[in-house]
């Protein structure tokens, strides 16, 4: 009898462990959706032509993923989604090898082989798309290939809601995250790993409670690139930051903040600052 009870306990424990292994957290599902959605956007030949309402596709999949109770159901969702996008022809050009050396610090598609989240069928489909990726012009970006080469986003829908619903907020996050993931040249130099940024910001974009918090969260996301060329613009960002700025330009020199130039040097805008002053402490407060 004791052996029988012990066997039942072991079987139950094993079943519970397997069930736990098959469960995916909401963050895991959303992180995977963000990456798959961005990958298909730029790599899948049919998606990159602008054939689909790609923003709406993401919103639909976020809603559907909430109903996926385990890993099997989530992978079925992803697999059927990929199949619905149409056939991907083999790309002979993609498999050609050359002797050029590429800078790969910014390039990482290892997540497509993540067996914790994806099953073998989905992994094979993602890898096939990578190997037979889009080779024509892209609907979502433009790149000028000359000495003044640039990258430009295009054909993206503007979000006009003051405080959009959760799915649309996540859309904004995933759109920005993937733009940086695939096109930002200094991604490898950010203070925080870009994958970790996605995990952290999913929770924040999901849980924000009002417009002010939403704007601050978007500003925080923009700052994650650690690049002063990145600017977050919002009509009402002064809600938190205020309407004023220090009437001077500054620059860090040997770890000290130096005033390099002055604005509005005549009354009533005098600030007391002088050129080459060293700023050691901020005495201004938001009002």
Structural description of this entry:
It is a single chain. The chain has 9 helices and 5 strands. About 5% of the residues have low confidence. It is mainly α and 287 residues long. The longest helix is centred in the N-terminal third of the chain and has 21 residues. Helices cover 44% and strands 8% of the residues. Strands 3-4-5 form a 3-stranded antiparallel sheet, with no helix packed on it. Strands 1-2 form a two-stranded antiparallel sheet. It is globular and about 65 Å long.
Radius of gyration: 25 Å
Alpha-beta content class: mainly alpha
How many β-strand runs? 5
Largest β sheet strand count, sense and barrel closure: 3 strands, antiparallel
Low-confidence stretches: 8-20
Order of helices and strands: HHHHHEEHHHHEEE
Give the oligomeric state of the chains in this entry, treating copies of one chain as homo and distinct chains as hetero: single chain
Can you give the mean pLDDT?
84
Which overall shape is indicated by the principal axes computed on the Cα atoms? globular
Count of alpha and pi helical runs: 9
Could you tell me the strand content as a percent range?
5-15%
Helicity range of the residues? 40-55%
> If strands are numbered along the chain, what order do they take across the biggest sheet?
3-4-5
Gap between N and C termini: 75 Å
